[in-house]
Amino acid sequence: MIKGFAGRVLEVDLEARTAVFRPLDEAIARLYLGGKGYGTRLLYDLTPPGIDPLGPENPLIFATGPLNGSLAPQSNRFAVVCKSPLTGGIGSSACGGSFAFGMKKAGIDVLVVRGRSAGAVRLEIDGDADEVRFLDASDLWGLGTGAAQKALGKGMHHAVIGPGGENLVLYAGIVSDARIAGRCGVGAVMGSKRLKALSIQGTRKLDMEDEAGFKKYTQWVRQVFKGHPVLGEKLRRFGTMGIVNTTNGRNMIPTRNFQEGHHPDAMGLSGEYLEDHGLAGVRSSCLHCPVACGREVEVPGAGRVKGPEYETVGMMGTNLGVTDLEKVSHWNWMADELGLDTISLGVTLGFAMELQERGMLETGLRFGRAEGVAEMIEAIAHRRGLGDDLAQGTRRMSEKYGGKAFAMHVKGLELSAYDPRGSYAQGVEYATTNRGGCHVQGASMYFESTGPLTINPQNLKLKAELPVVQQNLACAVNSMVLCIFTTYGLIPRQVHALKPGGWTHRLARVIFENSGPAYRLIMGSKLLQVTWLDTWLSRITGLRFTPGHLQEIGARIFNLERMYNLREGLTGADDTLPERILREPLFKGMDSGHPLDQLLPRYYRIRGWDSHGVPLPETLRKLKVRT
Questions:
Q1: Is the pTM higher than 0.90?
Q2: Which residue among 158, 236, 576, 579 is buried most deeply as judged by most CB within 10 Å?
Q3: How far is the C-alpha of 97 from the C-alpha of 99, rounded, in Å?
Q4: Is Protein biosynthesis a UniProt keyword of this protein (predicted)?
Q5: For the packed helices 342-357 and 325-338, what is the interaxial angle rounded to 10 degrees?
């Protein structure tokens, strides 16, 4: 077995009450690593086309990668893969916390949950004894995610759902500690199986090829992270809310359901505001992460809880026209306890507000007003009244009530808090990402608009190449399984030190902006190990990895996801953006919306797909994608 892997897959059938340990498929691990890649390969192989995402036949796959269980920074994450009830296509999400660490300590790389329990159930998994216990969970059913984990105790590592998952809200997530696998409705799939919680423990040791070398190298990387302008300074000091002023200043923060990209009072939701007003609270982090980008805040009635992230203050703050930090923090706490994805929730609420504004539906929700929002969040989680419709997500709401032109989703998955009219590469990434409109499947906006280079986000240079490279890299990172922030550190301090507007900064921008094929060639090189990503993998597994190998693995995963979506009925016509993004200018002087039609053909050519977005046979052969 490849070092870094425990070598075991646990398959659980909730209906038959059986649990079987099987060997990890080493051939799959070599081609797809673990995490998202391994999970996608399993999903494709285990299911026929056309299954019901909320039916017992949809497997819920929890998958770790070779770096999980190590002390590598930002490595204690697990991937969740299933057919998405929100999009009908590939569903994947990732989560921090400690559950991934627990899986590897239990000697389990992948956990496959199949079937449906007759009643509420929870699983206790003892990896040392190879024992799986099916326990009644009726006493936990209805509890919030924090309350459920508290009731389960501290002796094991937990992954749970809240009332949102129990009631099959299509954007419900799965929570570990205070972190959430929020996207694609994975919590609804868990709820459809009547599975409230997973608890896991073990004391097994991770087997590495070069443990001493790995530890020494990791110590060096930790020092790099601590001194990095983003990972060690901005994120650590301000948390992810530290990006609010940047996106607001660049017309990229969603405001009033993406009608605008700037809010005059967004500063009140920023990390700088928290610090200046003594509200920053206590830093929090996932297990073994030195960045500590999380914040704990005081919420009336809840005490000290996990504070909102950038995505939340964007989608449930400015997107709703609300900049009251106390209100947004309270809604964030509610969503976490109820087990709801704050991105999809915020977009859906914003859509409901615009329906109200246009007189298309009486929702009781209005931009800039907090009244009724908390009550609607509860109604969504429990599927009461109009909340039952909002629990279906923005796409289904627009199909029922109209407003498709301003329904802010791609493939059914609501957009993240970066307006793509202010970041053309991010728009291409949104349109083509297989799970739908999400920023962490490439994070092109950082390398284009919000990072240190800030190349012109509104011309066509590099706007098709960048998403391909970033999507491939993200697929590999999500299969190792690491936090996407590890890729932010790949831009060295020297670039961050360039004075914005200075001649060296302008020169660097021009070079990067015009790099095109050279950029892809460098990122695809298999000659040298140049990043901590490939070096970590090599020292743990004993196999040779380079940036080019990661690009190849990522492209393989991305194309397999694409083939899964095509199998499930999605087509190139789904590679689009909301009409508002395509047609409406973001600010004065902007001629129109996003020029996707000019960029998509080039993107397809770079991918090795035909004009309809279907991977060519030679592309699949080259990448060894079996369908």
A1: yes
A2: 158
A3: 6
A4: no
A5: 120
